[in-house]
Amino acid sequence: MIYCNPVPIAAACLLGKEVVTDALNTIFLAITDLIKYNRDLRLDFGFARITIVNRGLKVTFSNDYKSTCQDKTIEHQMKRAITPVSQTWKSSYTKTFAQSTLGNLLSKPNHEVVRTLNDKTLALKMMSLDLSSSGKFFAATTSGNRGFFPGTKTPFSP
To answer: Can you tell me whether residue 74 is helix, strand or coil?
Structure first.
């Protein structure tokens, strides 16, 4: 079952992958059982029709599919990239992305503004840690009538 990938089918049907895998296995077992018991079978997939008569297999492709596959432009449409593989290994991803359509749509943020915002966030984080840690330290070190420093009383002691 290389061609019937159960993961996208399960996602489209909102079912579990195991359910789809079992359903596909059952369909293929049913087809083999029908062939084993000399039943004629006609499977129409839209782009092709598979006919099994007297255990003989015949495949007929639709005319639209034939003309599409024989068209010279389909080869260029099916390619993932036009550049040769040797050039792909030499080019950098950031340069290629910057020249792409999506790279032109998304503008890069100003580095100085981003750095300033990050510094402010870090400073705020440090200040909040300082306030929370001093409160915890003060509460943790005061016991009884002892204050923060040895020999002093706590502000809450009588």
So the answer is: helix
